Amino acid sequence: GAGVSQTPSNKVTEKGKYVELRCDPISGHTALYWYRQSLGQGPEFLIYFQGTGAADDSGLPNDRFFAVRPEGSVSTLKIQRTERGDSAVYLCASRRQGLLNTGELFFGEGSRLTVL
Amino acid sequence: KNEVEQSPQNLTAQEGEFITINCSYSVGISALHWLQQHPGGGIVSLFMLSSGKKKHGRLIATINIQEKHSSLHITASHPRDSAVYICAVSDFGNEKLTFGTGTRLTIIP
């Protein structure tokens, strides 16, 4: 596609529910990143994929968070048993190769998650 | 873990003024990014640099590796430049970006 696409753009859910957030990166971009941005803060790293594999998941806050990228393109961030503290904007970014290969990073518009 | 600090946190200026936003980091990096975020969340990459200086239109980014410091300059500022400007760094040997908290810039006509 023309840019990084994220769906849904807004999601309101109740505490304890399961949520999936989708990211469709730019075609041909092998590197995909998930970040979380709370109000008034800079984005925080969650997980990085190179192709189908999660190369670095050290930013996932706990085992309620999981992400997949089964075919090396679309990625889904999954949050189980949501808590109010999970409320944030979840940002996805993609890059043609890994960061150290100096390709420009492209961000999606984000998915705003609100847990009531 | 790298610590990234930006200053100022908020900046209001008149149209036409020369703008400088600063970024300091604590640990040696492989690259530094300047990003622009408009209301509603969209983030656009402005620059990625590991040394020296880059220029794109009215925007100039510089980095001093020895001092662990970077600046973003905007010449002839315009109200459409109003946004949050974020500095982010990548450490050697990993793919994570560490972000600053951003500088909210408001340009008044």
Radius of gyration of chain B: 13 Å
Helicity of chain B, in percent? under 10%
- Beta-strand portion of chain B reads over 45%
State the helix count of chain B: 0
Low-confidence stretches of chain A are: none
SS field, number of helical segments of chain A: 0
SSE ordering of chain A: EEEEEEEEEEE
What string, H for helix and E for strand, traces the elements of chain B in order? EEEEEEEEEEE
Q: Give the CA-based shape of chain A.
A: globular
Main beta-sheet annotation of chain A = 7 strands, mixed
Helix content of chain A: under 10%
Structural class, from secondary structure content of chain B?
mainly beta
Mean pLDDT of chain A equals 91
End-to-end span of chain A in angstroms?
33 Å
Give average pLDDT of chain B, whole number.
Answer: 92
* Alpha-beta content class of chain A: mainly beta
Nearest-angstrom radius of gyration of chain A?
13 Å
Greatest interface by residues involved: A-B, 30 and 24 residues
Oligomer class: heterodimer
Shape of chain B: globular
3D structure, described in words:
- The complex is a heterodimer of chains A (116) and B (109).
- Chain A is mainly β and 116 residues long.
- In chain A, 0% of the residues lie in helices and 47% in strands.
- In chain A, strands 2, 4, 5, 6, 9, 10 and 11 form a seven-stranded mixed β-sheet that branches. Chain A has a four-stranded antiparallel β-sheet with strand order 1-3-8-7, with no helix packed on it.
- Chain A starts with a strand and ends with a strand.
- With 109 residues, chain B is an all-beta fold.
- Chain B is built from no helices and eleven strands.
- In chain B, strands 2, 4, 5, 9, 10 and 11 form a six-stranded mixed β-sheet that branches. In chain B, strands 1-3-8-7-6 form a five-stranded antiparallel β-sheet, with no helix packed on it.
- The A-B interface holds A 31, 33, 35, 37, 40-45, 48, 50, 55-56, 58-59, 89, 91, 93, 98-100, 102, 104-107, 109-110, 112 and B 4, 30-31, 33, 35, 40-45, 48, 86, 88, 90, 94-102.
